[in-house]
Amino acid sequence: MTAFLIDQMFPATAAGLLRDKYGHDAVHVTEVGLRGAPDTQVAATARADSRAVVTENVADFSAERDIVLVFVLKRNLPAGGAQAPALAAVLDRWNHEHPDPYLGPHWPRVD
User: Fold this and answer.
1) Residue 72 lies in a domain
2) Is residue 37 part of a domain?
């Protein structure tokens, strides 16, 4: 099962839902002292902790090749309070479809 590090543009509650509802190892950048940290530091932390970075910052992470990157565009998720549950569901489904993801970029299906 993939461990997730969720970037700051997504609500921290998504990490909690992934843990509590779906049983995933998931943390939000704010939970691990990375609030406002540069993307290179987020990537380094993900690499060190063997986590997949969940972000929408395609350009900022495009040079990273030795970590799992899960790109989700916020515009494809519902707004407001529905965003965290939708993101958690997308990541849970993606993880079941890709239990051993390759290093590099992934674009999960958002329904």
Assistant:
1) yes
2) yes
- What is the domain range of residue 66? 3-106
- pTM to 2 decimals? 0.95
Dump pLDDT digits (tens) for 47-82.
999 999 999 999 999 889 899 999 999 999 999 999
Q: Find the largest Cα–Cα distance for the chain.
A: 33
* Residue 111 belongs to a domain: no
Per the structure, the count of domains in the chain is: 1
Neighbours of 5 (CB within 10 A): 28
Contact 24, 91 (CB under 8 A): yes
Structure tokens at 95: 């993880």
Phi-psi region of 27 (alpha: psi -120 to 50; beta: other; left: phi over 0): beta
